[in-house]
Amino acid sequence: MELITLALGGWPIPALFISLPTLLLRAFLPDETVYIIVIGFMVISAGFALRAVWRCASLYFVLFLFFILVFIRLGFAADIILPSYFDSAEHYRIIQVFINMREPSQLVWPTASYYHIGYHVIVAALVSISHANIGQVMLLFGQIVLAAIPFPVYVFVHRATNSRKAALFGIALAAFGWFMPAHAVNWGKYPALLSLLLIQFTLGMAVIKNRWMFALSLLASVLIHSRSVILLAVFGIAWMASNQIQEKRKLFFALAAAMIGMSILLINQNQVLGPIFEPYRVWVTLPIGLLAVSVAQSFPRLIFFSILAMLGILAASFIPISTLYTLLDRPLVEMVLFLPLAFLGGLGVVRLPKFAVILLTVFILYYAVTNYNFSPSDCCQLAGRDDAAALDWMDSQLPADARIAIASADLSIDTISAPMQGTGTDAGIWVAPLTGHSVTALPYYTDFLSQEMHASLCDQQVTHIYIGARPQSFKADFVKDAPTWYETIFQLPNAQIVKVLGCNIQ
């Protein structure tokens, strides 16, 4: 059971290391040859994997749970046109660059800096083999990753308690206890979600003391998401510090509790960091905390480790590594806190009778069904069906040299970083990756009726303006007030394309 659940955290390693040569070989070999090599590798590796576990009844039980979670999570992608949030458009673009590397001369780095390349390589390889739509592969792959995330928790709880019921309860908590990390798909945090699998696998390798696999998993984790190394360091430091409790156990617990309380107060008072605790509502988190306290005498080091890990994760959102960045940004902190909490919950139920654990699990599931949304959040769906139609029309009807103005805003996600300038706020973010047209990001409140703004559009060679239906989209009122400057050439209820006129008039 441990081997199977841990494998659900470790599969991105072979996926990554077969995806890299898959993309490289396409520049030198015919596609058919590459596909034969890849499929052969997959069949052989699957054979070795099944040989190790096929006689184990736990295999079918875990797979049954996994496919139930996949079925539930796939509901997220049922009615969504394109992946949510502005991050997804950049992921799409990078994946597109990798797929288009068909000649040795095209083997170029797709970004100005490191940007979670491992995730993009895996998805690019999947797209190149399946010939599926990039956006759909991103959506489906993200939900499958999300379904796998809870399972490695089993290993840590089972190793600590030797209790199957406690370990399964840990899985239930990680899957449904809080609406994180599931909500992260609304933010397009696909690399971070994939890294949560490998972070758990890397910690699992540390637990079983497999040094070579630990090193390999650490490398893969960093390739998939650079801040994985920060999270792994936090867990490592928390583990080493938990060794020091010994005779001063009560003092350390009191100090850690006080520091956690201070952190909560400080974060709640901060406008940017305040939402960190929003997913971790009291109806689930408080019972878990009380259960953990009830077994503090049995697992003092493990509980102290979990508290220190949470404290370290929270503290990392305040620690600057430059004038622009902190060790961990708020969304990642919000995503990862479920791990130590699920571990604490697993420890907490070890003394309870089986029927009580079943009742708690039913309560967790009921609370999730009645309080969490398993569909895409309205906050982050930037593209709808009208937008898709508009983008398709632009791709086929606008000249290749068209430049499109899109709506944007400045976004802050932590206490240190400068706001991200020109962050797309509607479906305009998809203009560049889907149509290939150049874009110019302008504040969503831009006054297109001013002489200076019209002159600036002409100077920047902006030929068209994209208008969506989001709260921070451009308002279309300016078109009818300045018919000599602007003309609507495409219009649906929730998407418009406006042509800029008069730029040749002195």
Q: If you had to describe this structure to a student in words, what would you say it looks like?
A:
- By secondary structure, this protein is α/β, with parallel strands linked by helices.
- It folds into 2 domains: 2-371, no CATH class; 385-500, no CATH class.
- The protein contains 22 helices and 6 strands.
- β1 and β2 form a beta hairpin.
- α9 (164-176) runs antiparallel to α17 and α9 runs parallel beside α18.
- The longest helix is centred in the first third of the chain and has 23 residues, at 31-53.
- The model has no long low-confidence stretch (mean pLDDT 85).
Compile the SSE list and pairings.
Blueprint lengths: L1 H9 L1 H14 L5 H23 L3 H18 L12 H13 L17 H14 L3 H15 L4 H9 L2 H13 L13 H18 L3 H14 L3 H15 L6 H20 L13 H13 L5 H17 L13 H7 L1 H11 L5 H18 L13 H13 L5 E9 L8 E5 L6 H5 L2 E6 L7 H9 L4 E4 L10 H4 L4 E7 L2 E6 L6
Parallel strand pairs: 1-3, 1-4
Antiparallel strand pairs: 1-2, 4-6, 5-6
Helix pairs in contact: 1-8, 1-10, 2-6, 4-7, 5-6, 6-7, 6-11, 7-10, 8-9, 8-17, 9-17, 9-18, 10-11, 10-12, 12-15, 13-15, 14-17, 15-17
